[in-house]
Amino acid sequence: MISKKDVQHIAKLARIELKEKEVEDFQKDLSSILDYFELLKEVKTDKVNPTFHTSEIKENVMRRDEAKPDNIADELIKQAPDKKERYIKVKSVFK
Amino acid sequence: MKNLTIKKINEGLKKKKFSAVELAKEYLKRIKKEDKKICSFVTITEDLALKQAKEADGLIKKDNNFPLLGVPIAIKDNILIKGEKCTCSSKILEDYTAPYNATVIERLKGAVILGKTNLDEFAMGGSTENSAFLTTKNPYDLKRVPGGSSGGSAAAVAADMCVAALGSDTGGSIRQPASFCGVVGLKPTYGAVSRYGLVAFASSLDQIGPITKNVEDAQILFNVIAGKDERDSTSIDFKIHTRRGSSASNPKSKIQNLRIGVPKEYFVKGIDKGVKKVVEDAIKRIEKKGAKIEEISLPHTKYAIPTYYLIATCEASANLARFDGIKYGLSKTEDSLIDVYLKTKAQGFGPEVKRRIMLGTYALSAGYYNAFYLKAQKVRTLIKQDFDKAFSKVDFIFTPVAPTPAFKIGEKINDPLAMYLSDIFTVCANLVGLPAVSVPAGFSGKLPVGLQVIGKPFQENKILELCKSF
Questions:
Q1: Which residues of B173-327 form beta strands (DSSP E)?
Q2: What residues of chain A lie within 8 A of the CB of B355, using their CB?
Q3: pLDDT band for position B245 (cuts 50, 70, 90)
Q4: Nearest CA to CA, how far is A22 from chain B (Å)?
Q5: What mean pLDDT do residues B350-376 have?
Q6: Per-residue pLDDT averaged across B41-66, rounded?
């Protein structure tokens, strides 16, 4: 069983604020799921390579570094909730 | 204008039985009436549909023959259509409008897009109950789920509120709802269809695919959307083996040369009797036509669920970090940056999405990476080797799609692990990257049941030709 402190630590890493009730629920849910995941421990994998990707592409895919006319930067900037001209605003990071 | 297929629409438009605009209006009318009880659409794109229908009628006059000309289609609401909302059935994207088209949307030349369909939030779930907006009902029994996560697309096709639809499949999200709703659903080979403009859930597993009324339509739609796209570097240039050619010569003798593998690990306890019988009957039917049935073993099957859920949640926790209240989507105004993140995600994500982000974050956090994430990627290799070995002996693998037919709304929603376990027959095709289809094969009581056919990489058309032949 993972602790409440573990749940709160993970939530902080994931940047999700949890209510007290959610912490309790996740403690229960995550514990039972993680216990089930322990099943993988019985598989011998010492000499097995991981498969991160199933794609047949073996090399990096490259393209020329050229500007394209279909630039949608302005469209994307428009989506930001807080902006000034063509800059996206964030709260100050340094105090 | 009932029960139309792509082929019937091609003919109807050519013979001027109806115009594309008439067809679009008829389907929009039907959605407004029928969808009150089914709830498969999040957004109806009426203006877009009528504009595209008008264009289609113009193209018909010029004798254009795009395969999907005038065909009314629905799109899962995690695929971007420029100028239309794309919500992923999540509050965090409730007011988000797509600034560009997904590649698959650009490839649907001539088609008429009716609307965006409901899904489990960010495609995470197997019942469409995890939508933040509405619960889609199964057209065969309104008290039951349509499956998920592409439940809106499958229900809309089954209820004839569109002719075909696009879904996305990360661990069964096209095939399982297709099975539950009695329609055809294809998960293509990883890399066969561009993922550009699909909101990412688990990038090494996600694929877009067709959901249709029959196998032929799935084939037409797949061949339209497939192919290399420079905007998705994991998409692959492969040759589409179309209908004409080898298989048309003598389908009967073809079947006689086929070896069909049936994995013994897929017919164990917990599987519904009706489902088992439907799948066994389908196997008998193809055996009668001359195919050779071989029992095969996929020994790592029992590790597929933990392997899948570790990889999928780890990738999801990284992919969904982008919803931070800064660039787009929901944003909570707070005094400090950290509080913007914390409150935006707390309010924007639903319980299942939070659960998966938490699981993935845990498995990737210091001290657990090797034991969970890396371990899962290694077991994935063993699962891949199981399939490589099986496909050295057989041409296709037949299995059930899900252990049960459509379950009741509310039945599993409070037991996440039970919900995960019901994905046992579908997740392997994603882990290994193989193409797999669910085709309607019969009924368990009054509920439809699909047969899953898994094939070798890029043999989508061969799989679908086979499904037409028995």
A1: 184-187, 207-212, 259-263, 292-296
A2: 26, 29-30
A3: very low
A4: 9
A5: 95
A6: 95
* Position B172 in a domain: yes
CATH code of B452's domain: 3.90.1300.10
Task: Tell me whether strands B447-454 and B436-444 are parallel, antiparallel or unpaired.
Answer: antiparallel
Task: Count structural domains, chain B.
Answer: 1
What's the CA gap between B189 and B455, in Å, rounded?
9
CB contact under 8 A, A14 and B357: yes
Contact B99 A76 (CB under 8 A): yes
Closest partner residue to B99 (CB to CB) among A43, A75, A91 is A75
Which residue in B340, B416, B433 is closest to A29 by CB distance?
B416
Distance in angstroms (rounded) separating the CA atoms of residues A90 and B326: 7
CATH 1.20.120 fits A4-42, yes or no: no
Show the domain range for B249: 1-254+263-273+401-470
B128 in a structural domain: yes
Q: How far apart are the first and last CA of chain B?
A: 28
> Per-residue confidence at B253, pLDDT binned at 50, 70, 90?
low
Q: Is residue B409 part of a domain?
A: yes
- Percent helix / strand / coil, chain B, rounded to 5: 45, 15, 40
Is B87 part of a structural domain of the chain?
Answer: yes
Provide the ipTM: 0.94
| pLDDT for B247 | 45
Contact call for B457 and A55, based on CB within 8 A: no
Nearest by CB to residue B346, choosing from A10, A16, A45, is A16
Q: What pLDDT was estimated at residue A92?
A: 84
- pLDDT at site B252: 57
Give pTM, 2 decimals: 0.96
Q: What are phi and psi of B168, to 5 degrees?
A: -135, 150
| Cβ–Cβ gap B433/A37 under 8 Å | no
**Partners of B117 in beta bridges:** B41, B76
Which tens digits make up the pLDDT trace of B280-317? 999 999 999 999 999 999 999 999 999 999 999 999 99
